[in-house]
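does this look right to u?? pyridoxal-5'-phosphate version
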Amino acid sequence: MGDALLRDLTDDEARRALVCKWGSVDPDVLPAWVAEMDYALAPPVVAAVTAAVAAGMTGYPRFERGGALGEAYAAFARRHYGHQVDPGQVLPVVDVTSGVRLLLDVLSDPGPMVMPLPAYHPQLDIAQVTGRRRVDLVVDPDAARAELDLDRLDALLAAGARTLLLTQPHNPWGRAFSRAELEGVRDVVVRHGARVISDEIHAPLVLPGAEHVPYLSLDGTAEHAVAVVAASKAFNTAGLRCAQIVTADPATLERLLRAPMARNDSWSPLGVVAAVAAYTDGDPWLAALVDRLAAQRELLTALLAEHLPEARMRPLEATYLAWLDLRAYGYADPAARVLERGRVKTAPGHHYHPGLTGHLRLNIATSPQRLTEIVRRMADALVTEPEPAPR
Ligand SMILES: Cc1ncc(COP(=O)(O)O)c(C=O)c1O
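got this back:
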């Protein structure tokens, strides 16, 4: 396998390619914030999208379920997770967040939505925009392992919440939940007749030592759960605009197909092409990526031990987003300090968990050289001039 398939972008290339991550920071800032990777695209994706643009495929997409996209995702799910998906139950949607919103809107009862916190922050308001209330299932920042508190989930559902937004693997917890944990979730949800929306965008990014168990692969989930998946996070193609909703129950599918078109922002045909290429021909590149991310995880552990020994990092089982507890260094907002003094842009912890101090999320999907420089600069900012007391 090895790394040969994976090519690091140079700084100039990254600035041109990643207009959000690199293009919106000052030239002296190393960006390690938004979830994009500093690697050249997978060659099969480039070839397929280039050919589609050359052929003029820039009109509306085909409005169909299943099709080549459904077949490609079903084959990927079978190979990677041993999960049998009916290709006809795969529906395109513009992105994962819109998919979650659509599912809440169309399928969920009006009651509150349970949101495990910390959470992917653009989804913090998703319950409200569908006219629902968000109720939080908070992970104790002192817990050695981030786990879903099933007793609390039980209490929230008993108090009237109707939907759980499950993110798995979890950003920013870095967790890939085990089958037993997910079965525990299922049992609580079924007891209350509630629904699950399972955001599985990070599923291809499970690192060695963990596995991804699709929620819909568990017995007894088809009638209450829908997954939203995408190739876009693992293959850096978010700008091509295509995610997929996966259902496992004909009645649920029917309700989604009857939803008015105005409810769904339509996806791009180029996103469909990219997803089909990634799912069908992307395995070797994905394997090289996962190898690299596993090596970056190891490197980060070593760098933290050397430069920021008081940092606490929960085990990173999946994703390339490390959740760092830096409370020991005394800054309420370490991301602000690291940006100002270290010229490294990370993601502030309080964006993911309003009110939480002392945490940040670090994106490690870059070169080993950049990661080394990032941690060195973070340490310079946090360690050399400590302020006397936490704010
Ligand atoms: C858990 C999770 N869901 C959704 C998204 C965003 O996906 P999309 O751009 O397809 O809405 C991200 C982005 O990092 C994420 O971490």
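The mean pLDDT is 96. idk if thats expected tbh
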